[in-house]
Amino acid sequence: MIDLTFEIIKNEIMASDIFEMTLKTDKLPADIKAGQFANVKVPNRTDLILRRPFGIYSVNFDDNTIKLGYALRGQGTQALSILPAGTKVQVLLPLGNGFPAVEEGKKVLLVGGGIGVLPLLSVAQSFKNNVISSCIGFKDASLQMKVDEFKALSKECIVASDDGSLGEKGYVAQVLAKYIDQINPDVIFACGPEIMLKGLGEFAAKYPTYVSLEQRMGCGIGACLVCSCKTKKNDEEHYARVCADGPVFRFEEVFYG
Ligand SMILES: Cc1cc2nc3c(=O)[nH]c(=O)nc-3n(C[C@H](O)[C@H](O)[C@H](O)COP(=O)(O)OP(=O)(O)OC[C@H]3O[C@@H](n4cnc5c(N)ncnc54)[C@H](O)[C@@H]3O)c2cc1C
Ligand code: FES
Q1: Which residues line ligand 2 (CB under 6 A)?
Q2: If you measure from the C-alpha of residue 34 to the centroid of ligand 2, how many angstroms do you get, rounded to a whole number?
Q3: Helix or strand or coil: residue 174?
Q4: Is the pTM value of this prediction over 0.70?
Q5: CATH code for residues 107-212
């Protein structure tokens, strides 16, 4: 990991209360993997000491840019949203484990909900030797993002919304249930609200499934234990640091609320 100075190239709204920030630096680290995240220092705000973690959903090594997508939540994301192009930002990256490599030719199914679709887009972009299918869901059409990109990068792309204003009506897991046998994936990668991840249990029993978790963080580098969460491996419980041991875990390692 390395702490680099980036310049904001673009910072604009991409869906209702969701922003996309494009950042450029002199030389990106070569080892950024799909599913890893960056810790962003909010510039010019001495009161916001802790950096904010965001998934790196797009990387371009040719022009040394990355893209982050962020939903407006509290003070940090509000402050980021008003930064103009040209602002300098300190970013620590790449952090976390990212999604595991998958053998060439294997079928990868991406299952995402809301802003959780973004880290999965980085998989669709970088797993070029795999067959990608995707099932992405949003609360309603105003919150859709990157649907065309998923369609372009996926062999098949199922789109759902809770209210039916976009794609099929229903929650992601309900809609996916109609298609999963036909897709017959070798592995599932999922990211989204915990309730959506929990709903993937019946698929995880049949197909190896990895989930990317979100947890309140402090340092983002494994030192403070703020992000600890109870996990299980081989029936033994232990505590994992989401920032350093995750954010990607096997479905069955996680305790869902
Ligand atoms: C690995 C990882 C990847 C993430 N990727 C994205 C992403 O791509 N897009 C996106 O919109 N959000 C993402 N989040 C959540 C994002 O970090 C929080 O929404 C953001 O930090 C909120 O900051 P705030 O100052 O606006 O909110 P506040 O509530 O004011 O934040 C106060 C403090 O709590 C921390 N915090 C609050 N909520 C979260 C949270 N859910 N996760 C971690 N720390 C939190 C903040 O970093 C800050 O230190 C991710 C979280 C993690 C852990
Ligand atoms: S955020 Fe400090 S150990 Fe994970």
Answers
A1: 217-220, 222-227, 241, 243
A2: 20
A3: helix
A4: yes
A5: 3.40.50.80
